[in-house]
């Protein structure tokens, strides 16, 4: 059968996104053929496309998708044809109508969770799970700062933190996004387009700042994040939406109160089958319980992936974005 997929032969702007249609072949030993129902869009995809994260050429794009198994390779016993599954790697290539995947990379999707929700959530919610619960170890009663609280990761993170009974301060760029952040559960909103982030954090906390900052923005918010931390506070810098943080002077961490900074990567927390199974079970439970409601802010046909990238980089999107292969 034939499948259509995105292929890039050079890194650059959205214009480098091209489509290829070709025979996909049959799954080999330990593999399955998945027909995608929905593909997740992440800022990570723009790093692979744009060159912030170099990748071998030619390359696919996208790391997460959900769909239905339509063929099994030899030796696959954990899944059957017709099973609904989702994945978040390994490798790039989720921007496709169909994909052959190792069965070991797949997670069964509960019946109550749609393909769109699973594709929108699996990478983002797994990121939130490991950052909040295993990296920062947020506790009930903590006050936490979340940048880009109206984004796909941000909305999930705010809800997750509220389920843990934390107090959440969220930063946003406009009133429409402020409304989304409040709906997600933010206790306090900072409009970074006209407010000083660190100053407002100090006002909200009565002076000391917060013990934890989650910063997926990167370069533009790095100093504000440090200035918002309390002594011995932790900055979890997990994204580069505004560009990479560079030229860090470690002495700053001492002068600002013996602070900690970590740059975690999801797959270091999902490194073993046991970690992956436990983390994903927690993700599906938080969604199925209603503690985390995944907001699909917009969908695009897969054929409009380039426009989806433009809108994401221009910060015109809210919540999660999903590409629809059909």
Describe the model:
This protein starts with a strand and ends with a strand. The protein folds into two domains: 2-122 and 285-324, Quinone Oxidoreductase, Chain A, domain 1, CATH 3.90.180.10; 140-263, Rossmann fold (3-Layer(aba) Sandwich). With 326 residues, the chain is α/β, with parallel strands linked by helices. The model has no long low-confidence stretch (mean pLDDT 94). The protein is built from ten helices and 15 strands. The strands form three sheets. Strands 3, 4, 5, 6, 7, 14 and 15 form a seven-stranded mixed sheet that branches. A six-stranded parallel sheet has the order 10-9-8-11-12-13, sandwiched between helices. A two-stranded antiparallel ribbon has the order 1-2.
């Amino acid at each position: 059968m034939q499948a259509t997929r995105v292929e890039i032969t050079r890194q650059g702007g959205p214009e480098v996104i091209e489509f290829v249609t070709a025979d996909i072949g049959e799954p080999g030993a330990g593999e399955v053929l998945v027909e995608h129902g929905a593909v997740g869009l992440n800022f990570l995809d723009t790093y692979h496309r744009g060159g912030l994260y170099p990748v071998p050429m030619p390359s696919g794009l996208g790391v997460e998708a959900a769909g239905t198994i339509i063929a099994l390779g030899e030796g696959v016993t954990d899944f059957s044809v017709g099973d609904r599954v989702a994945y978040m790697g390994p490798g790039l290539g989720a921007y496709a109508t169909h994909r052959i995947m190792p069965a070991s990379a797949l997670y069964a999707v509960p019946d109550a969770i749609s393909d769109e929700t699973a594709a929108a959530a699996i990478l983002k919610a797994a990121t939130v799970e490991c950052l909040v619960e295993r990296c920062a170890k947020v506790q009930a009663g903590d006050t936490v700062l979340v940048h880009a609280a109206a984004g796909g990761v941000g909305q999930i993170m705010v809800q997750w933190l509220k389920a843990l009974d934390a107090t959440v301060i969220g930063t946003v760029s406009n009133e429409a996004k402020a409304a989304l952040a409040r709906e997600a559960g933010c206790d306090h909103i900072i409009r970074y387009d006209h407010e000083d982030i660190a100053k407002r954090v100090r006002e909200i906390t009565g002076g000391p700042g917060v013990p934890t900052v989650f910063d997926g923005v990167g370069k533009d918010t790095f100093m504000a994040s440090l200035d918002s931390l309390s002594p011995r506070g932790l900055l979890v810098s997990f994204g580069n939406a505004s560009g990479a943080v560079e030229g860090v002077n470690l002495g700053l961490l001492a002068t600002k109160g013996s602070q900690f900074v970590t740059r975690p990567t999801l797959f270091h927390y999902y490194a073993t089958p046991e970690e992956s199974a436990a983390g994903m079970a927690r993700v599906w439970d938080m969604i199925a319980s209603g503690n985390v409601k995944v907001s699909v802010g917009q969908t695009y046909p897969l054929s409009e992936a380039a426009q989806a990238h433009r809108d994401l980089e221009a910060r015109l999107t809210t919540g999660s974005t999903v590409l629809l292969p059909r």
